[in-house]
Amino acid sequence: MELLKKTFSLVILGGVIAAACGCGPSAPIVLKDRPDGCLWNHSGGSPERSSYSDISFSQQPGLLWVRKFKYPLHIEPTGALGFLLISTPDNKLHVVSANNGDIYAEISFKEPVMAPVVISDSMAVLNIGGYRLMVENWVDRQQLWEADLNGAGGEPLVLGDKLIWLDGMGYLRCFDISQGKRIWDRKIDRTVSAPVSGSELGILIFPDDGVLECFDPRSGRLLWSFDTGARIRNAPVIVEDQVIFCSADGQAARVNLVSGQTVWYHDLKLPVYGPIASDGQGVYFGTNNRFIVRLDFETGDIVWKNRIAGPVKAGPALTEQMAVFTSIDFNVYFVDKASGLVKNKFKTDGMISTRPITCQNKIFVVGEDMNLYCFGLPEE
């Protein structure tokens, strides 16, 4: 934590974050180059959002601490530079230390943050009330620019210097993230429930009618489309040039992101509403009918399928040895990735409908019981 405090110091001034040095807007913080960066934007399904972290535990992690908030926590936290950004229904964004749960600052807005915050270095992208997209420097609290969302409920997608989102009027928008200048937009004449996903190879839209469309990130031109024959409500996962999705109707597929060609397609009859995760060897997800599942990445065959006590509405987080699932049955499940056996579980005080995240060799879970839970190994 001392390294983080030397990098920048936060002070609370009238409920906002300000740079303690008194300088102008701070330079971008290159989170990807920092071992303690904890860059965790796993909503939306971009390559950095496969929900896999290479942290390793020598034994089963236990509860380290709990931070109580005033309201139920329904939105996934975002990790950045050793901090967690946690939004609450009282129109606040809390900057919380991943080390001990201390709240460094609270940022107040006129309306609640509706979706997980997206981080790109020192820039934070926020969906405010479903009607304003706001880009701010989250370190010194300088607002860079904003745009109309027109009633959109989802989070945007960051691809390099591009910010891409689907607004409430059905337009897929692409802007320069630093300057707020329009690059292109395209009308999507379909209802879309799943978040926008993609990589530099293509932007993916999963309309409710099941026709997957891939667009060129540079121009917005349609590259290919693929009729999945299924209702998709969740974020897919992208691993290099492969995209894997599971549907609410029970199908799972792997498609080449460049060509749109199907690698494998299976009717598993397992309804999936939450995001999926992959470590490049397996594909992991929980189902609405209380199963946790691992598929083989190469073939799509079921490696293991085990039943737990409650439905899974969120995706898992993956470490070297474990898949960590949450459920609306109040439990956090620590599952062996190889066997699918539940090695440990922890009972919270409320339903959990968001994914766990990892940061600084710890696992974090937020729940409707108003608590932020931190799991890990005690320090020597």
Describe the structure in your own words.
This protein is mainly beta and 380 residues long. It has one domain (2-373): Methylamine Dehydrogenase, Chain H, CATH 2.130.10.10. It is 2% helix and 44% strand. It has one helix and 34 strands. Strands 3-34-33-32 form a four-stranded antiparallel beta sheet, with no helix packed on it. Strands 4-5-6-7 form a four-stranded antiparallel beta sheet, with no helix packed on it. Strand 33 (362-366) and strand 34 (371-376) form a beta hairpin. The protein is globular, with a radius of gyration of 20 Å. 45% of the residues are buried. Residues 1-33 and 41-48 have low confidence and may be disordered.
In short:
This protein has 380 residues and is mostly beta strands.
